Amino acid sequence: MIRVSNLTKSYGSTRILDDVSLEVRQGEVTALVGPSGGGKSTLLRCINGLEDFQAGEVAVGDVNLVGGRPHPTADLLRLRKRVGMVFQQFHLFPHMSALQNVLSGPLYALGESRAAAEPRAKALLERVGLGHKLDARPANLSGGQQQRVAIARALAVNPAAILFDEPTSALDPQMAKEVLAVMRDLAEDGQTMAIVSHDLASISRIAHTIHILERGRVVFSGPVEQAFGDDGPARRLMD
Amino acid sequence: MTRTPHARAAAALAVLLLFPALADAQELRWGTDPTGGAPFVYKPPGATEADPYIGFEVELADYLAKKLGRTSVLVDGLWKSLPELLDKPRTGEKGIDIVLNGYEERDDLKAKYAATVPYYVYRLALIARDDADFRDWGDLKAKAGQVGVLGESAAAVYAKRLFGEGRVLESDDVENVVGMVKDGRLAATVQDGPAAAHFVKKYPELRTVGTGRQPGYYVIYLRKGDDRLRAQLDQAIQDGFADGTLQRIYRKYGVWNEDQEWLAHRYTGTWPVPIDQEELAAEAGGGSIRKLIPQLLKAAGMTVLLAVTSFPLAMLAGMLVALVRVYGPRWLGVPLGVYVEVIRGTPLLLQLYVIFYMLPKALPALALDPLYAGIIGLAINYSAYEAENYRAGLRAIPRGQMEAALSLGMTRLTALRRIIVPQAFRIVIPPVTNDFIALFKDTSVCSVILITELTRKYNELYNFNRDLVVELAVLTAGLYLVMSYPLALLAGWLERRTGTHGGTR
Description:
The complex is a heterodimer.
Chain A: E1 2-11, E2 14-24, E3 29-33, H1 40-47, E4 55-60, E5 63-66, H2 73-82, E6 83-86, H3 98-109, H4 114-127, H5 143-155, E7 161-165, H6 173-188, E8 192-196, H7 200-204, E9 209-214, E10 217-223, H8 224-227, H9 233-238
Parallel strand pairs in A: 3-8, 3-9, 6-7, 7-8
Antiparallel strand pairs in A: 1-2, 1-4, 4-5, 9-10
Helix pairs in contact in A: 3-4, 3-5, 4-5, 5-6
Chain B: H1 3-18, H2 20-24, E1 27-32, H3 56-67, E2 71-76, H4 82-85, E3 98-99, H5 107-112, E4 114-115, E5 120-129, H6 137-142, E6 147-150, H7 154-163, E7 168-171, H8 174-182, E8 188-192, H9 193-202, E9 206-218, E10 221-222, H10 227-243, H11 245-252, H12 258-267, H13 279-283, H14 289-327, H15 330-344, H16 348-362, H17 370-395, H18 399-407, H19 412-442, H20 454-464, H21 469-497
Parallel strand pairs in B: 1-2, 1-3, 6-7, 6-8
Antiparallel strand pairs in B: 3-10, 4-10, 5-8, 5-9
């Protein structure tokens, strides 16, 4: 589904990602964990074409992004219709209601008619537990509610995979729980997801596979059970 | 720091204050506006700062001063506010004894100031290109073409009455108007006789058409109650005509003609027919403020037209400039940055001059109607300010907004249109409203390119209705306020409507 091969990215002389390779399979929930500054979020942004990289390759379905040159606009557009993104700071559109936010992808990116898109958008908001907040502006929603709208917005363009960049880090524990419940629901539905997170305990209950990044390198890749096993590398991170 | 110098200064000051006559009784301070130009008061081409002014009124003033045993001192001021200088003490800054600068004999002025006997008889002359296809005033009236005049002059009043208000364009700068006739951009211009004589001599391609019309007197204004000075001046003027001194001066500047002959005869008692002189004040709309209101309203309509046509253009251009500067390629952003700095760093007045007067000289096809030149000039000028407003607005939108839109699969252009610009628009409503209100008032600058809008109309009415100065000012200011306040309300409403708070909409 998503394959990253030998990806290398630097800002000036600082190497952020160093020869990173990993794969996210169809229907798999992948967690990217590791200490701050390890390059997790940057990797996610590279996968979605929000960042250029110097070398290596990102393949999503039949779209290939190659490092070392600017990505062609047409490739980026195709790629982003396959890969949705949920941000730490939600980035809802403040001038639109919750429903309009969810509709923005179908209407402005996919070119669907409002009549066609609206029932599905409402259903998505219902699914994330916000069917009663269709007309609310982001400013009038709690952080957890905003993040759930953002998830519905990402789902609305029918992406094959969704990338979560620290989805609960800006939330208090109660709100984080709401968001995690939605994510678990999606995981059980077989949604392909890649999640960058610090919250190892919560993530271990959702993810199938764990990749640990330290200083731009993948130091561990394997099943959750192994990572969180008695001597697993994830244990070390939690301590 | 002893007390003595202070005491001395105080004593000297007391003398000056108590005995102003002692201070400068030997001067004849005459108020004039040298920018009015030849042949009245001017400097010849090539003259330096230090060279004295020349002109038939300079020599007239010198003659009068000599007759009164004083020295002539030129005090410069704005032509239309010269009479106001008489309201101030003669000893102060810009203090004057008399106003001497082609001022017509008018009832509204005579109500406030004393006037001497006439020193000159002027007629209005019609000036056109030598190859013009009309032979007389009536011919031109039947034909098309616009007529330029000096704003707020008797010529302006007469031209509007004869040709209709729509065909008459007013400017403060006689040179410009005459130049446009020379270049074929105006059909003709109506000028006072002396100015006409000067320009026809200066530009061989121009000639006067038909005979002079609407005769009137130039008189000298002074303070009411200055009876002794007035009697002296009256005597000096009449003596000057009688002994030929004025004829010599007027001939030197090419402004002596039959009318002056007649005036000379009148003073010497041998000419029976008085000139009919009554109409001027009446046709200028003088009298009641009620008669002036429709004129002000009509001019206010022009102000509104200029503002509501130019500002949307400025907003559109400004938004495009800002978008390219923030989101576009550098090779386009840098020149646009230069554009913004040049446009907002130079005066609107100058830009209008360039668009209206200079460009057509380089490329005749660019000769625009004043209205279009005004709209384009205002739009260009304000586009620079709007570009900066929008740039600030765009920069205030977090980067995540663009990234979120892109990650949904929108193109950059769609993201700008649907996500970024609507948010920036809301942020800039207050500063943009502010600029719209400023532009409303800046439309007054368009009077330099012959557009009669509210401020020019105010000046014109003010000039002929000195008895209604306060009412006119209040009324004009009130009109501007009435026009701009609804804009402030509209902006507030827009801000609420597009707000990010407030649940539903």
